[in-house]
Design goal:
The complex is a heterodimer of chains A (about 110) and B (about 120).
Chain A (H helix, E strand, L loop, with lengths): L3 E4 L2 E4 L5 E11 L4 E6 L6 E5 L3 E2 L7 E14 L9 E8 L2 E4 L3 E5 L1
Chain B lengths: L2 E5 L3 E2 L5 E8 L8 E8 L6 E7 L4 E3 L7 E6 L4 E6 L8 E9 L10 E2 L3 E5 L2
Parallel strand pairs in B: 2-11
Antiparallel strand pairs in B: 1-3, 3-8, 4-5, 4-9, 5-6, 7-8, 9-10, 9-11
Chain lengths: ~110, ~120
């Protein structure tokens, strides 16, 4: 089973700043199978990025994903107030889905 | 418009069996490629994938919980049911169901989610 480790655990930034979130896999992940979700308090997760770098429907272009193999990143180019949330990476492989432990992006 | 809604008991006792129902609309589980999954989230903790069922009635389970989980579907009712046996306080969590579309560019990810239902395990 592939384990996903996200860092940092918490990112304290101000609106307008750039956020870079990391997701590291214990084994190589097929890029097509790596996704990012955003979760706000009291809400269900929302699909942000799939296939490592493709934005889901309705996701603003300030969100971008990249990486390959075992190292993936989610970048928010300029944080808007509504972007402060928890972000999870997720992968699929061998008929299993696993999530990282999440990165909280909080207002500094 | 795709929607999913979870239902089930808010409180179960230790050792009891939990039965959750996901009722959905806007798609059919008899359509090739469609899947419904269950994911849970303990309070303040991360998401954990539990089980998935596809249009062809193939079922997939988390290895760590496989012996306790059963997922099934009722296509005519647009429902997916998850049962989890031998509940323990550590199983206290919000349980979500979500959809995966095997013929969408978003495969193998979960594009629509229910609001979740909080299940507390306590005597």
């Amino acid at each position: 089973e592939i384990v996903l480790t996200q860092s940092p655990g918490t990112l304290s930034l101000s609106p307008g700043e750039r956020a870079t979130l990391s997701c590291r896999a214990s084994q190589s992940v097929i890029s097509s199978y790596l996704a990012w979700y955003q979760q706000k308090p009291g809400q269900a997760p929302r699909l942000l990025i799939y296939g490592a770098s493709s934005r889901a429907t309705g996701i603003p272009d300030r969100f971008s994903g990249g990486g390959s193999g075992t190292d993936f990143t989610l970048t928010i180019s300029r944080l808007e107030p509504e972007d402060f949330a928890v972000y999870y990476c997720q992968q699929y492989g061998s008929s299993l889905w696993t999530f990282g432990q999440g990165t909280k992006v909080e207002i500094k | 418009q795709v929607t999913l809604r979870e239902s089930g008991p808010a409180l179960v006792k230790p050792t009891q069996t939990l039965t959750l129902t996901c009722t959905f609309s806007g798609f059919s589980l008899s359509t090739s490629g469609m899947c419904v999954t269950w994911i849970r989230q303990p309070p303040g903790k991360a998401l954990e994938w539990l089980a998935l069922i596809d249009w062809d009635d193939d079922k997939y389970y988390s290895p760590s919980l496989k012996t306790r989980l059963t997922i099934s579907k009722d296509t005519s009712k647009n429902q997916v049911v998850l049962t989890m046996t031998n509940m323990d306080p550590v199983d206290t969590a919000t349980y979500y169901c979500a959809r995966m579309d095997g013929y969408s560019s978003t495969w193998p990810n979960f594009d629509y989610w229910g609001q979740g239902t909080l299940v507390t395990v306590s005597s």
